[in-house]
Design goal:
mainly alpha, 74% helix, globular, membrane, 3% strand, EmrE-like
């Protein structure tokens, strides 16, 4: 380990972070978010907006002690305050639509559509963050859109058995697609603010989303008092799982590129969604959902592997350049 002198004090340098830290944190985030989806799916008598409000209140409350401890301005650096506000708006809308999709679609269908966002995150990250985007990744976008088409069961119109699109199902599909769009813009914004402490980001996120969700739920839904007993425990777990999942995702984005983080998180979420749907809700996924999920997961893994190879190649080129110099 090399030591250097900075302002008269010795400072360690050359310490490399673990190559798998971002992957591990993203996987843990996916696990906790999948458990949140199970709770939302099970509490059918409460409007999804009200459940989302509980989630945001928990994130805001649990971020307060951390925000005070770090000793930074709770509203963040001046140059990032607009970004924090926009990220909160996208994040609040994302979760509101996310929970609507989970309520009106099967858990696997909603998750496959919602977590196809890594493919579109690559495109948005390329535009706003100048992260690399290759021809193979464009192919993955086409493959993912095809997977979403199968998940929504549009190919059923080519067969004798047509899927009936009820009002609830259409609402769920539109909500899931809207959630994808919000996530695609939210993650690059978080990546851009990687220098902001995650507690400050959570504080601003909770503040903005509580206000937004109150308005959205008052307009599109209604508020009810939750049942006693196990439902109170569900609400507490919803808050805890949401806070831990969000914190893990923020930490992952601060030490890894947006593409790989969203890729790993989405893959774990989709796999667990099928598991929970079969084991907990006793619903067998149909062939369209399976084909769609396979295409989406393949695209996500393909993008992640392609990104890993690109990073590994760049690191090798940099090391060779240093040796030659």
């Amino acid at each position: 380990m090399e030591r250097r002198i900075t302002d008269g004090k010795p400072e360690l340098s050359g310490k490399k972070p673990s190559a798998f830290r971002g992957v591990i944190l993203a996987t843990l985030s996916g696990i906790f978010y999948s458990l949140v989806s199970v709770i939302v799916k099970d509490m059918t008598y409460l409007h999804p907006g009200q459940i989302a409000l509980y989630r945001f209140i928990a994130i805001f409350a649990t971020s307060l002690p951390q925000t005070v401890r770090v000793g930074q301005n709770p509203f963040g650096p001046k140059k990032f305050r607009i970004c924090l506000l926009v990220r909160g708006i996208f994040g609040g809308t994302n979760i509101f639509l996310n929970f609507l999709a989970i309520r009106y679609l099967s858990l696997s269908e909603a998750t496959v559509i919602i977590f196809s966002s890594p493919v579109f995150v690559i495109v948005v990250a390329r535009i706003f963050l100048k992260e690399p985007c290759s021809v193979s990744q464009c192919f993955a976008v086409v493959l993912t859109v095809t997977g979403i088409i199968f998940t929504t069961k549009l190919p059923s119109h080519l067969t004798q058995e047509h899927v009936v699109y009820t009002k609830e199902r259409l609402c769920g599909l539109l909500a899931a697609i809207g959630s994808v769009l919000c996530t695609s813009f939210q993650i690059p914004i978080i990546r851009k603010m990687k220098s902001v402490h995650h507690a400050v980001m959570n504080f601003n996120f909770g503040l903005v989303t509580i206000t937004e969700t109150l308005i959205l739920t008052a307009i599109f839904g209604n508020f009810r008092w939750h049942h006693c007993g196990i439902d109170a425990a569900y609400i507490v777990l919803l808050g805890v799982f949401s806070f831990v999942g969000l914190t893990m995702m923020l930490l992952a984005l601060q030490c890894e590129l947006a593409g790989p983080v969203s890729t790993v998180k989405a893959a774990s979420d989709i796999g667990l969604a099928f598991l929970w749907q079969i084991v907990i809700f006793h619903e067998e996924p149909d062939s369209y959902s399976i084909i769609g999920s396979v295409l989406v997961v393949f695209s996500i893994v393909f993008i992640g592997f392609n990104k890993w190879c690109s990073l590994h190649s760049n690191a090798s080129d940099l090391k060779n350049a240093e040796c030659n110099s």
